[in-house]
Each structure stands twice: as structure tokens, then as C-alpha cells.
Design a protein that fits this description.
Helix content: under 10%
Number of strands: 9
Shape: elongated
Radius of gyration: 18 Å
Amino acid sequence: MPPPLRRRSGSPRPPAAPSLPRREQLQSPRSELEPDGLWDGVWATAEDAPSPDEGAALIGGAEIRESTLEGIRLSSARADSLRLTDVVVSGCDLSGMVADGATFTRVRFTGCRLTGLVLSDARLTDVSFEDCHADMINLRMARLQRVRLSATRCRQADLLEARVADLSTDGADLRGASLDRATFTAVDLRGAELEDVRGASALRGAIISPEQVVGVGLALIGEAGIRVE
């Protein structure tokens, strides 16, 4: 078991940006993305990834580092233990991808389709999501540290027993998210849509704005079983 997160309050620390070589130093991949494969220092596009016409890709154990992925389609791929380090993921389709136990470190997702992405028991450190669609993303038992959601839809996200530290939001949509038995530390939810969240008591100590009081309050009332008649 990982050691407990120690920070209990305060403003969240922002995620660190990916550290990438200059654009002219990145090269096209020399091999296919395959199980236990490695992409290092690449600029990969749809032409470099497995074709969706061939069925769901199997890339479990693959590692990508110091790279940019642009326009790649990996919907419904099986990618258990996927490792991304210092990677920018732009305009990619990872909807329905199963990446249990993945490790993402200094990763930036921009304009991606992540609907139904499964990251259960994953570890996300210094990760940002910008203008992404991530409804029903599965983060059960995941460990998130220094994560930012900006203009991103995460409706019905599942964070059952997740451990989250240094989370910030800006225009994120978390309506209907499940937070049961999750642990949150240094969380700023101002600017997020929080109506109908489940397990709202997990947000103890989080920062919200006056405009969010009603939505969070109703969620707490529902969780407590209080009826308003």
C-alpha cells in the first residue's frame, strides 16, 4: 500500500508541464505501438498507431516518453500498465480504452475524447486535461496528485476509493460523479459543475465558490437521507 497523503488543506499545487525535446528533435516512430513496446522522443500521428479497422489494439505494458501523440485513435484498446512520461496527447481518441494500473507522469491531454476511459488503480502525477470529453471515466482506486481539469467534461466519473491530492478545476463538468470513499486533499473545485455528485461528504475541506453551495448542499442532503417535503 502507498503511504497516506499527508497534506490536509490549502490551495492545490499546479501540475508540472511535460518536459519535451524541441519539435525538430522528435522523430517518427521506428516501430509499431505494441505490447511492452517503447516510443521514446517521437512525434506520432494516426498513421503510426494500430488501425481501428483491425479491431481493438493490444498495447499492454507499452511505454511512451518525451513524445507528442496527435490524432491517434486507440478507442477500446487494451493497455494495462501503460506508462506515459513527459507526453502531450492532442486530439486523440482513447474512448473505452482499458488501462488498469497505468502510470501517467507529466502528461497533458488536449482536445481528446476520453469517454469511458478506464484508469482503475492507476497513478496520475502532474497531469492536465484541457478541453477534453471524459464522461464516465473510471478512476476507481486511482491515485491522483497535482491534476488539473480545464474546460473538461467528466460527467458520471467514477472515483470510488480514489486518493486525490492537489486537484484544481476550471470550467470542469463533474455532474453525477461518484466520490464514494474517496480521499481528497488540497482540492479547489471553483468553476466546476457539481450537481448530483454522489459521496459528496468526501469533499470535506475542498474549496468551492458561493455559486456552488446549493448544488453541493443538495448532494449532501441526499446523501444524508434527508427529505424535504
